[in-house]
Amino acid sequence: MFSHFLASALVLSAAAQPAPLASGATGADLPIEQQTALRCATAIAIATERQRTGTAGNEDWPDLLENQRGREFFVRSFARLIDDTGLSREELALRGRAEAEALAADNAMLDAVMPPCLLMMRASGL
Predict the structure, then answer these.
(1) Domains in the chain: how many in total?
(2) What is the dihedral angle through the alpha carbons of 8, 57, 80, 116, rounded to the nearest 10 degrees?
């Protein structure tokens, strides 16, 4: 179900075909706090999906499926980013797709960003 939410966001962004973004559509043009929120929301979504499907993942990660913690963190983070940046859902989904592709392609990168992202998730109360 969570994978359907992420896939829907990505499909929605592709279907909407908004005006092209300036270079740096990965979020690099965002302030560091928002770049981090985008990367962490995406990393948590990937890790949650991997736990759901039982594919490779770090055994040290907490159960992100419990009470839909991973999904809730992703949804709250994206909603806050939309509010804070003024970006549309479609624009943010394009940026999230770029982050997801980078993280999914490099397990070492995902492993490296997960500890601070898990701290961010815990600090959010989830």
Answers:
(1) 1
(2) -160
